[in-house]
Amino acid sequence: MLAWQSTSVLYVPPGIWSLVLHGLQFIILWTGLVCLRQTGLAGFLGTRPVDEDEHPVLATTGCYAVVRHPLYLLGILFLLLNPVITSRWIVLTLFCIPYFIFGALLEERRMIRLLGESYRQYQKEVPFIIPRMNRQVSAD
User: Fold this and answer.
1) pLDDT tens across 114-125, in order?
2) Does residue 127 register a pLDDT over 80?
3) Fewer CB within 10 Å: N-end or C-end of the chain?
4) Are 107 and 128 contacting, i.e. CB atoms less than 8 angstroms apart?
5) Are 83 and 13 in contact, with CB atoms under 8 Å apart?
6) CB atoms within 10 A of CB 67
7) Helix (DSSP H) and strand (DSSP E) numbers for the chain
8) How far is CA 66 from CA 33, 71, 115, 135, 140, in A?
């Protein structure tokens, strides 16, 4: 992407809409940090030492109660809500969205291998990457 030096601006929203989109991107970044605090930044970056005896803990509250892969969802939304659309940004977005979805699918397989039935139950209760609009709270 960096080698593609010249890129043309295809769209900039008129008036205050550019500011609104920047504000939404800020909210997305803030929400991403909240989600990262839930699971730990070291674990996300892969810098935490791996302990073979340690059993992974499944996060099912906060961001992870809305969708199973909130960081991927937030990344997609951040890309889509960029107020300055260039040809380079469109290419980046078109490559990143399938990459995020594929990464989430690989992560699902890994979590099933590590956590088994508890993760399968979590899959039944929480949507993959798109939140449900009509969430029903159980009386249990």
Assistant:
1) 899 999 999 999
2) yes
3) C
4) no
5) yes
6) 19
7) 5, 2
8) 16, 11, 19, 9, 18
